[in-house]
Write a structure and sequence with these properties.
Bound molecules: flavin-adenine dinucleotide
CATH class of the largest domain: Mainly Alpha
Number of helices: 10
CATH topology of the largest domain: Butyryl-CoA Dehydrogenase, subunit A, domain 3
CATH architecture of the largest domain: Up-down Bundle
Shape: globular
Distance between the termini: 51 Å
Strand content: 5-15%
Largest sheet: 4 strands, mixed
Strand order of the largest sheet: 1-4-5-8
Structural class: alpha+beta
Helix content: 40-55%
Oligomer: single chain
Length: 391
């Protein structure tokens, strides 16, 4: 099989190609051997965090000035494609730890908050989570009901609850979004950066068995008067909604790139399987209906990657719009879901068992269509931009 056709290498500079190969070697060496086992055993593998840190993945997206790797947005996309192709749990962990937590802390934290948290998070000594979603506030996060009640001494007490928080049960530090004055609506939402080892907080695994990302930690968190000091406010009071939205908009690029990785893997597995298995006296890949699926998945892969790279390059140039990342996430996640669906079908009964990787790709990709803004929410963003321009 000619893998060069679906690897990104020919679209990249020599340095970027070397970077991609390095991340591919790391993923194959350190992540691939555990990807199936952690999914089947439903365990979060703490050693994975140390491996990601040692390879520079956790610090990669941050500037060198604060000890990060100084990756360009394109390098971030390349890295997440490679992680996504091999292990959804590792990619999802990085999407939260680096995409949402460290980057938001870097952009909005004061000197003391950056000094305290960026180093430990980049070295994998601390795990972070981004606690935004609530049982009654999912897509409509402006309506979140968790309250931060201001005390006479300027500190806060937090009441309420979050759910579906990735790393929520294992995190040392949490970016928490709570409303300090519900009469102001979303203008009362404020961000806080807090440790998780304090009174008034309870964390539980989400009920049920998750469809995908079974080697990840997803928690429900309740707050019953959890104390928060005045110097744990992140950014200006009342700016939490825009901090959360800008964090999600930035994070969507890595989710889109991770979906390209899933898509690429689904295609690679489909090509390998259909060229290797024969029925009716010839390889499956010789049947036109199979060829049509392979060709469609191949074409869609290049469309998704083109949108992801375009978004990354525009981010680098400073002229990215919300439409760029919304389009990239929408197309890449939906196309990857279709690619995984085809891969399961093309494997026949073998696509139905964890003995082959395609059912895991199919299960894992569903979450990428849901979090950091569902596909419908990406469409509302795009449609709003179109119609506002038409006014
Ligand atoms: C694996 C996983 C990890 C997650 N990790 C985190 C995390 O770390 N931190 C965090 O804060 N959250 C996290 N989430 C939560 C995630 O962000 C939310 O599930 C997501 O925002 C959708 O919210 P919801 O589930 O309440 O669905 P709802 O908002 O209730 O949506 C249900 C359906 O209605 C549709 N819908 C809603 N509004 C509209 C509209 N205006 N127009 C058209 N359709 C609409 C949606 O597209 C969806 O299909 C995670 C979720 C998953 C599955």
């Amino acid at each position: 099989m000619n893998e060069a056709l679906w690897l990104p290498d020919d679209e990249l500079s020599a340095d970027e190609r070397a970077f991609a190969r390095e991340l591919r070697a790391f993923s194959d060496d350190k992540l691939a051997p555990h990807a199936r086992a952690i999914d089947e055993q439903r365990t979060f593998r703490r050693e994975m965090v140390a491996d990601l840190a040692a390879a520079g993945v956790l610090g990669g997206p941050l500037p060198t000035g604060v000890g990060g790797g100084g990756w360009t947005p394109l390098q971030l996309a390349i890295a997440h494609e490679e992680l996504g192709a091999v292990c959804g749990n590792a990619r999802g962990f990085c999407a939260v730890q680096t995409g949402l937590v460290t980057q938001t802390l870097y952009r909005h934290g004061n000197d003391a908050q950056r000094r305290r948290w960026l180093g430990p998070l980049m070295r994998g000594e601390a795990i972070g989570c981004f606690a935004l979603t609530e049982p009654d506030a999912g897509s409509d996060v402006a309506s979140l009901a968790t309250r931060a009640e201001r005390q006479a001494d300027g500190s806060y007490r937090v009441f309420g609850g979050k759910h579906w928080i990735t790393n929520g049960g294992i995190a040392d530090v949490m970016l928490l979004f709570a409303n300090v004055d519900p009469s102001l609506g979303h203008k009362g939402i404020t961000a806080f950066v807090v440790t998780t080892d304090r009174d008034g907080i309870e964390r539980h695994a989400m009920p049920g068995v998750d469809l995908g990302h079974r080697g990840s930690d997803h928690a429900a968190i309740t707050f019953d008067g959890m104390p928060v000091a005045a110097d744990e406010v992140l950014g200006p009071i009342g700016r939490g909604f825009s901090i959360a939205m800008s964090g999600l908009a930035a994070g969507r690029l890595s989710v889109a790139a991770g979906a390209v990785g899933v898509h690429r893997r689904a295609l690679a597995e489909s090509v390998a399987f259909t060229t290797g298995r024969a029925q009716f006296g010839q390889p499956l890949a010789q049947f036109q209906m199979v060829q049509e699926r392979l060709a469609d998945v191949f074409t869609a892969l290049h469309c998704s990657r083109a949108l992801v790279y375009r978004c990354a390059r525009r981010r680098q140039q400073g002229n990215e719009t919300h439409a760029d990342v919304a389009m990239a996430k929408l197309h890449a996640t939906e196309a990857a879901a279709a690619a995984a669906e085809h891969a399961v079908m093309l494997h026949g009964a073998r696509g139905y068992t964890s003995a082959f990787p395609v059912e895991r790709l199919w299960r894992d990709i569903q979450a990428l269509r849901i979090y950091e803004g569902t596909s419908m929410i990406q469409k509302t963003i795009l449609a709003r931009m179109l119609t506002e321009r038409a006014k």
